[in-house]
Amino acid sequence: MNADEPTTPRDEPLEPHPAEGEVLYKETFRIIGNDFEHGGEAAARVKAILKQLAFPTDAIRRLSIANFEAEMNVIMYADDAEMELAVLPDAVRVTFADHGQGIPDIAWAMQEGNSTATPEMRARGFGAGLGLPNIKRNSDEFSISSIVSVGTTLCYVVYVNGSNRGAQ
Amino acid sequence: MIDRPHAVATDPGKCIGCVACSQACPTKAIRVRNDLAAIDDELCIDCGTCIEACAYDAIRPRTSSPADLRKFKYTVAVPSLTLYAQFGDDVLPGRVLHGLRQLGFDETYDISWMCEMVASATDAFLSESKGPWPKISVTCPAVVRLIQIRYPDLIPNLVPIETPRELAAKLRRRRLAAERGLDPSEIGMFFITPCTAIIHSIESPEGLEASYLDGAFAITDVYGQLLKAIKHDPGSDSTEMISPRGLRWAMAGGEISSMRNANTITVRGLRDVVYVFDRIESGTFQGLDFIEAYICPGGCVGGQLTVAGRYLAQRNIRQLARRMGDQGAVKEEKVRSLLRDHFFDIESEIRARQVRPLARDLRQAIALKREKDALLEHLPRKDCAACGAPDCETLADDIVRGNAKLADCVFVRLEELEGKPALQQGGDDA
Ligand code: SF4
Ligand code: SF4
Predict the structure, then answer these.
(1) Is residue B403 assigned to a domain?
(2) Could you give the number of structural domains in chain B?
């Protein structure tokens, strides 16, 4: 692994697990590239699950924005992906591992306003040029790695702020 | 939590327990137990869908009764604009207002001009607001209720401007009290409503400590008598106050059509409202300034408690607005001065009413979720609703909350009768 250049793609998709802790609940969803018809469904299902589990609305809101963005990224740019939801005692971790074109320049893609969404995509309300930075902004931990022509692995965590849980 | 009765009630004498309402209810608030539909107060948004779904007339709106009028020294009928849309071209609003007085009200009070004022006030608010975007209209109380229970994150998006019906009642009550030397509580103001959502908003308002209205009569209930009164007496009240532009509020699209800001959309019908709100919650639609959303597919002309039906009513309103000249009746300085006085502001915070999670404790909630998923594996997934819950998933949810049992499912019972163990996980003691 090339530790000296953090933004260059790694040789292997890494398994980032920024938030450690016992996984209390896990569920995976499959997302298919170009499946605009079902765009946003995985994010909506995750939202419904977290509501049942009494997560505070702010955490759900931030996570939902990130999830929707990440899900649409797959639909717009990748062939397919597995989205894993992991509920930890005081955080939710989501990992997207996709197969697809990958991101040649992560540093560029992480800059606000840089998006390769086509005008048609934007007109349909997707890819407002926010993409990855928006996911990062709405999560508490964020990591990404990508191999061109292989795929991208994205992992982010939203903390529920333990003391707030269950509060009105 | 449950602070008020809902605007819909089941009649045990008429309900046969057919489950049509329970399957139609968008928030899954209805369970049919012992051949009687029961409405869960926490989940109901008073959309009135169940009233339309019931073929036995067993779900009725809780409206005011003529006896309620006698509690007041002076009574005012405040008709929804949709009332004007129930009649053909030969019955103009002046005659509707005149006829309404014959039904026992001391006066009638039109709200079309207030609709126009609120549109201007909304424009002014949007030009000064700092977000979050898009802002959402509070006109339809069922939409507000839906946001409270299902989209609490969108509460800051609600426009903090009171509805025209409440503002009109507030203003008229104040003036009447002064003019006639009455105590405000001696004046009874009754809305003539197209829907149950508004009835409930009078009973337990959001954004107000107490409604400025005292009750509501359904358009369906007054229609027959009103028609008779109109035929009997050709008189007409003054329509000087009526704003043709404000009249458009009765239909979906009317609110934004009388606004200056055009970066707006109209969302009609519950399915579309859910679709759009889901997306706003995920951070899209932020480029819009304003959303006018109605639970009823055509807007208020399509309310469940109306007679003409939404297509004809829409045509009637459009025709009416055109005949009356289609212009505004409100002076902008007036709006600006009222804005400065905070006349339009909602008076209290609209709060989330989050619907119960499986459990407050995370581990416990996860345990229940697993249990629910396991149950769902064993349920037939036919969503037949024969168990009394609207679908299999809701039954599983009810079971883990202790409100139902697996044997409520007819398929499970059938399997048991046929000797097949319905649930493997029970082990020996099954
Ligand atoms: S009024 Fe609407 S939400 Fe309430 S029970 Fe009827 S269908 Fe359900
Ligand atoms: S759209 Fe209008 S008639 Fe229908 S529920 Fe909402 S306020 Fe009532």
Answers:
(1) yes
(2) 3
> pLDDT value at position B228?
95
Residue in the structure block whose two tokens are 């009637």: B316
Q: Find the CATH number of the domain harbouring A124.
A: 3.30.565.10
For residue B39, give its domain range.
Answer: 8-60
- Residue B127 burial (C-beta neighbours within 10 Å; 0-12, 13-18, 19+): exposed
Domain of residue A64 covers: 25-159
Report helix, strand or coil for B298. Answer: coil
pLDDT digits (tens, 9 = 90+) for B276-318: 998 888 778 888 999 999 999 989 999 999 999 999 999 999 9
Please determine, for residue B427, whether its predicted confidence score (pLDDT) is greater than 80.
Answer: no
**Ligand 1 atom at minimal distance to the Cα of residue B21:** 7
Cβ atoms of A49 and A85 within 8 Å: the answer is yes
A22 pLDDT more than 60: yes
Measured from the CB, is residue B25 less than 6 Å from ligand 1? yes
Residue B233 CB partners (closer than 8 Å, separation 6+): B98, B99, B102
Q: Establish whether residue B167 lines the binding site of ligand 2, counting it when its CB lies within 6 angstroms of any ligand atom.
A: no
Cα–Cα distance for residue pair B176/B172, rounded to 1 Å: 6
Among the three residues B60, B78, B103, which one is the final residue of a domain in this structure?
A: B60
Question: CB distance from B287 to chain A under 8 Å?
Answer: yes
Q: What is the DSSP letter of B158?
A: B
The verdict on residue B207 lying in a domain is yes
Are B236 and B311 in the same domain? yes
Residue B18 belongs to domain with CATH number:
3.30.70.20
Residue B350 lies in a domain: no
- Residue B287's CB: how many other CB atoms inside 10 A? 11
Contact B365 A57 (CB under 8 A): no
Q: What would the pLDDT profile of A39-53 be if each residue is shown by its tens digit?
A: 888 998 999 899 889
Using the Cβ of B349 and the Cβ atoms of chain A, whether some distance falls under 8 Å is answered with no
B55 with B71, same domain: the answer is: no
**What is the average pLDDT value for chain B, to the nearest integer?**
91
The answer for residues whose C-beta is within 8 angstroms of residue B175's C-beta and 6 or more apart is none
Residue to mutate among B27, B43, B281, B397, with most A CBs inside 10 A, is B281
A24 vs B352, B359, B363: nearest CB = B363
Q: Do A57 and B152 touch (CB under 8 A)?
A: yes
Per the structure, the count of domains in chain A is 1
